[in-house]
Each structure stands twice: as structure tokens, then as C-alpha cells.
């Protein structure tokens, strides 16, 4: 997958056809009443990000969105600002030939559909898929969400030419306001992905596995109720696991600019210079988010932290 290219003209036509305006709400945008069959991970062998004549140096980007109840405003923001995200990725070129896949997740304990996965795409189908995601608005009282479930899927059920052909990692961002649940059970993997495995997997084990082919970041959304209610616990847990790749976001409307900025810093551009490249309020928000990031170290063509 991943043919075509994103254009602002296509975005304008798409939003007009869906009747979206600046006043559209999450309920206006996310009308699905259950998971779309095409997004059900059970039975999916691979989601593929492939090179082509049109996109010879494809870069997979996996955006993992918490679709539990506390995150409605963030989904609304990402939908409305998807044009900013896609346009700036193509304009600034922090990575080559980007192909975006969404993974919507919730809580394996409480939710009926704790994982949905789109295809890797490069054109307006990115938006079409995003707005067909089922916003389950679930979650529960178990002090976390299943952030590590999309890690499992990305590690074992995505196949990318970027890594297979060139040894270059893709980018994976989880976005949410809660701590991660420490363990992914074999039973839940069977139920929600369809794989038979022998033992439960810890967050640390899955991080090691998915980091083989993706640079993994987490955006901690301070406007979500999880962060507002127990921000120190969320920050401490994620920082212990991800270090500087756990990024605090104080303004969710600037998520697109932050995502676009991260690979520039990882490639060696100073965080202050990257932040200064944005005009106005995005510059302040980006600087706050990425100031703790440092360049990654490249050896033998592979990117390592």
C-alpha cells in the first residue's frame, strides 16, 4: 500500500464532502458504531509499507491513538489538523516518502475492540481511514490502557521495505493520557490479534522487540483526564520506560508539528533550531515538547539510541 501523494486540494474536497467545519465535534467525525472489518487485526498477516517507482524510499509512520473516553478532544484535533501533519511531512521532508498507518487502541480488559489497524497510505486515504475508526470511548478502572498492544502488532504484523531493504527504522508514536499496562497476556493476543503464543509478554519485552524496526516515542497528553488526575504517575512511569522519548504535550493542537519535528531532531538538528522553524505558537509548543530530545546515533546504517 502507500501509492499516491497527499495534496491540500484533496483535503479540501474530502472535508467538504464529509461536511466538516471548524465547529465539527468528535461525534460528527467518528460515527462508526463498531469496528470496521477492514481494520480488524485478527487474521491480518502483515500491514505493508512498500517502495515503488512513485515512492522509492518509503518510510513507515505508525500513529497509535488512544480511543478511550478521555481522549475525544485529541482525536478531534488530530482529524482537523491532519492536513497540517501530512502537508508539513511532505514539505519539510524530515523523512523520505512517508506512509502513515493508524492503530487505534483501548483496554483489553474492558473494551470490545481494543485494537484497530489501518493500511499504510500516502494520500487522502489517510484521512478516510482515520475517520472510519470506531471511537469506542471505553477504558476502565485498572489504572492504564493497552498501549503495548499496538507495539505487538507493529513488531510482528508489519513489514516494511525501509527496514527489510535498507535497515532503516520507521517511526512509531503512541498518543495518550494514561500509564501503560505492564503485561499483554497470551489470551488477549489470541482474542484480539489471533496469534497463538506460549506466554504473556511484558512491556519491556515488547519495547525491545518493536524497537528493532521502529524508533518508538510516546506523547503524554496533559489535557487528557488521566494526566490531569494523576500526571506525576503517568510521567514517571513513561519516563522510566522511554526516557527522553516520553514527550509531554501541553497543547494537543500542536501534535502535528511535534510529530513532524521529532525526526529532524533525531537526525541531528538542534531542538532549538527545529522549534524556531515554526512560526508563532507552534514554535513555543514544539520547543517545550522536544527540548529534551537528543540526536540518535547511527552505526552501520542502523539508527540506535
Task: State the gist of this model.
With 305 residues, this protein is α/β, with parallel strands linked by helices.
Topology:
Elements: H1 8-18, H2 26-29, E1 47-49, E2 59-66, H3 72-80, H4 82-92, E3 98-105, E4 115-117, H5 125-130, H6 148-157, E5 158-160, H7 161-166, E6 170-176, E7 183-184, H8 186-192, E8 201-202, H9 203-210, E9 214-221, H10 225-242, E10 246-249, H11 255-266, H12 271-276, H13 281-290, E11 297-299, E12 302-304
Parallel strand pairs: 1-5, 2-3, 2-6, 6-9, 9-10
Antiparallel strand pairs: 3-4, 7-8, 11-12
Helix pairs in contact: 4-11, 6-9, 11-13
3D structure, described in words:
Helix content is 39%, strand content 18%. It contains 13 helices and twelve strands. Helix 4 packs parallel to helix 11. The longest helix is centred in the C-terminal third of the chain and has 18 residues. The C terminus is likely disordered.
Features:
disordered C terminus, six-stranded mixed sheet, Rossmann fold, 305 residues, two-stranded parallel sheet, 18% strand, alpha/beta, 13 helices
Low-confidence stretches: 297-305
CATH class: Alpha Beta
Q: What is the general shape?
A: globular
Number of domains: 1
- What kind of sheet is the major sheet? 6 strands, mixed
How does the helix and strand content classify structurally? Answer: alpha/beta
- CATH fold-level topology: Rossmann fold
Largest sheet strand order: 4-3-2-6-9-10
Q: Could you spell the SSE succession in H and E letters?
A: HHEEHHEEHHEHEEHEHEHEHHHEE
Strand content: 15-25%
Count of helical segments? 13
- For the CA atoms, what is the radius of gyration? 18 Å
Distance from N terminus to C terminus (CA atoms, Å) equals 29 Å
Oligomer: single chain
What is the helical fraction, as a range of percent?
25-40%
| Arithmetic mean pLDDT | 92
- Report the count of strand segments: 12
CATH H-level homologous superfamily name? von Willebrand factor, type A domain
The name of the CATH architecture is: 3-Layer(aba) Sandwich
Amino acid at each position: 500500500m502507500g501509492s499516491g501523494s497527499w495534496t491540500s486540494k484533496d483535503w479540501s474536497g474530502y472535508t467538504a464532502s464529509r461536511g466538516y467545519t471548524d465547529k465539527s465535534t468528535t461525534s460528527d467525525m467518528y460515527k462508526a458504531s463498531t469496528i470496521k472489518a477492514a481494520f480488524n487485526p485478527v487474521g491480518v498477516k502483515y500491514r505493508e509499507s512498500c517502495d515503488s517507482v512513485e515512492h522509492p524510499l518509503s518510510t513507515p509512520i505508525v500513529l497509535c491513538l488512544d480511543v478511550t473516553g478521555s481522549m475525544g478532544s485529541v482525536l478531534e484535533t488530530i482529524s482537523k489538523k491532519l492536513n497540517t501533519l501530512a502537508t508539513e511531512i511532505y514539505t519539510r521532508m524530515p523523512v523520505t516518502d512517508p506512509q502513515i498507518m493508524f492503530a487505534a487502541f483501548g483496554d483489553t480488559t474492558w473494551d470490545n475492540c481494543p485494537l484497530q489497524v489501518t493500511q499504510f497510505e500516502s494520500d487522502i486515504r489517510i484521512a478516510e481511514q482515520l475517520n472510519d475508526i470506531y471511537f469506542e470511548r471505553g477504558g476502565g478502572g485498572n489504572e492504564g490502557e493497552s498501549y503495548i498492544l499496538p507495539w505487538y502488532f507493529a513488531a510482528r504484523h508489519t513489514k516494511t521495505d525501509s527496514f527489510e531493504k535498507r535497515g532503516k527504522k520507521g517511526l512509531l508514536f503512541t498518543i495518550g493520557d494514561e500509564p501503560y499496562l505492564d503485561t499483554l497476556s497470551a489470551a488477549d493476543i489470541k482474542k484480539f490479534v489471533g496469534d497463538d503464543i506460549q506466554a504473556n509478554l511484558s512491556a519491556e519485552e515488547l519495547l525491545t522487540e518493536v524497537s528493532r524496526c521502529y524508533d518508538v516515542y510516546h506523547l503524554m497528553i496533559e489535557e487528557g483526564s488521566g494526566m490531569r488526575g494523576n500526571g506525576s504517575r503517568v510521567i514517571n512511569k513513561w519516563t522510566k520506560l522511554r526516557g527522553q522519548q516520553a514527550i509531554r504535550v501541553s497543547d494537543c493542537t500542536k501534535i502535528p508539528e511535534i510529530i513532524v519535528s521529532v525526526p529532524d531532531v533525531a537526525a541531528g538538528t538542534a531542538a532549538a533550531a527545529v522549534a524556531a522553524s515554526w512560526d508563532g505558537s507552534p514554535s513555543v509548543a514544539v520547543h517545550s515538547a522536544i527540548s529534551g530530545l537528543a540526536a540518535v546515533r547511527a552505526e552501520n546504517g542502523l539508527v540506535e539510541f
